[in-house]
Amino acid sequence: MLSQRDNDVLCQVGPGTPMGELFRRFWLPALLSSELPEPDCEPVRLRLLGENLVAFRDSEGRVGVVDNFCPHRRASLFYGRNEESGLRCIYHGWKFDVNGDCVDMPSEPAESNFRDKVKVKSYPAEDFGDVIWIYMGPPELKQPLPQYEWARVPSDQRRVQRWIQDCNYMQALEGDLDSTHVSFLHRWMDPDQATPWDPQQRQRRRTTASGQALLYREGAPKFSVKETDFGMVYGARRPAGDEGFYWRVTNFFMPVVTMPPQPTSWFGHAWVPVDDEHMSCLAFSWNPNEPLNTPMGSNNGNIQLERVQMPFSDGFIIDTWRDVRQALNNYGIDRKLQKTGNFTGIGPQRTQDVMVNETQGWISDRTREHLGTTDLAIIAARRMLLRMARELEDGVEPRAAQQGDLYHVRAIDVVTEESTLAGVLERHVDIATATV
C-alpha cells in the first residue's frame, strides 16, 4: 500500500505538482493526426495534465496547441475562426498563430503596438507516427521526439486509436504491469466463444504450446524487474514443461508508455493523464516488416468506440472517443456468458480492462490495498515515478526525456530454458531490439 501523501504525489498531474512537472519534461501523445485532418479544419478541444487547451491545424498544415481562453476577455478559442494561418477569436477578432503570437488585433487602433505585447499560452506540437505530440515543459529543455519504432515505420505498417477513461492514469497503466490478471480477467472457458470479439485468439488458445495456454495454466508467475535508461522492464515467468519457461517481458517507457508482448504483432499503450481523474489511452500496433493487415481492434479486444463531446464538472468540454460499453450500462456484462463463456461476462478484452480500471474509483485509494508477490512490477513502477518526481524537485532532470533513441526496444514473448530475466534479455536481444 501507499501512504496518502505518496498516492497524492503519484496521481496529481496539474501545473506545479511534482508528477505534473515530471510529465511536462516529456513529449506526450495527445491526439491522432486524423483529428485535425487538413489545413484550416475545425479546432479540437482537449484537456492535458489538467490544462484546458485547443488544437488547430493552420493554413500551412502546422499544428498549434493553445490555451482555451483568449487572453483578452477569456472567451473560448474553440469557437474561433481557423483561417489564414491563425485562430481568430470571434469575440473581438484577435488572431493568434501556432506559436501563440497575436498577429492581428482589429479592435485596437492601427497605430497601436498592443498586439506585440500579448500572447496566448501555447505549446510545441508535432506530427509523428500519425499522432500529434505535445511538449508542455520548459522551452529550453525541449528535446527531439522519442523514437518509438511504431512511429517510425510506414503508415500502412501501424494502427493507432485513442479513447478516454474515467480514472487516474496510473490505474490503467498498472494493468499492463500486471501479467497475472491475464490468466483470470481475460480467460475464456471455450476458445470458440471468443470468436465474435477476437477470432485470431481461437487457434492460439487451442494450442497447448501457445503462450495463451500457458497463461491459463499458471496464474501465479514469478516476477523480476530491472530498471533501464528508458524506464524499466519486468518479466513474468511461467513453467513451460520440458521446454523450460514461458517469459513475458514488458517494457515501461517513462513516463506513461507500456509495451506488453503480443503474438501476432507488436503493440502497446500510452496512458496520458487528462487530469487527476481522467486519462486518454493511445493504443498503437505495428509490424516492422510488412503492412499490418490486422484490424486495430484485434489488439485491443475489439473495443467499440464512439466520437463524443464529453463535459467536465467545470463546464469544459473535450472532443474524444469513448467505449460504448460504460459504467452506465454495466460495461455490457452478460451474466449467462459469465457462467458459461468467459471469466467476466464482458466480451471485448479491452472493455474488461476499462471496467477494472474505472471501478477502482476516479483515484484509487491505495492506502487500503494489500499487494502480493505478483504485484512486484507495480510496486517498482510506483517507486520509480515517485523517486524521479522528487529528484526533479531537487534539480535532477530525467535522463529518458533527453535521449529519445533509448526507446528502440520491443517486448519479448518466448519459451526458453533461461531462468533469469537477465539471461532472457541477453539471449534474446535480437527479439528485444528495434532496428527500423
Low-confidence stretches: 193-209
* Percent of residues in helices: 10-25%
| Strands, count | 21
What gross morphology would you assign?
globular
User: How large is the radius of gyration?
Assistant: 23 Å
The number of helical elements comes to 11
Helix and strand topology:
Elements: H1 4-11, H2 18-23, E1 27-32, E2 44-48, E3 51-57, E4 63-67, E5 81-83, E6 86-88, E7 95-96, E8 102-104, E9 122-123, E10 125-128, E11 131-135, H3 149-152, E12 158-165, H4 169-176, H5 201-206, H6 211-217, E13 222-227, E14 231-239, E15 245-253, E16 257-259, E17 266-275, E18 278-286, E19 305-311, E20 317-323, H7 335-340, H8 349-358, H9 376-393, E21 412-416, H10 421-427, H11 429-432
Antiparallel strand pairs: 1-11, 2-3, 3-4, 4-9, 5-6, 6-7, 7-8, 10-11, 12-18, 13-14, 14-15, 15-16, 15-21, 16-17, 17-18, 19-20
Provide structural commentary:
- It is a single chain.
- The chain is 19% helix and 27% strand.
- The strands form five sheets. Strands 12, 13, 14, 15, 16, 17, 18 and 21 form an eight-stranded antiparallel β-sheet that branches.
- It is α+β, with helices and mostly antiparallel strands.
- Strand 17 and strand 18 form a beta hairpin.
- The model is unreliable at 193-209 (pLDDT under 50).
- It contains eleven helices and 21 strands.
- The longest helix has 18 residues, at 376-393.
- The chain has two domains: 27-141, Rieske Iron-sulfur Protein (3-layer Sandwich), CATH 2.102.10.10; 149-432, no CATH class.
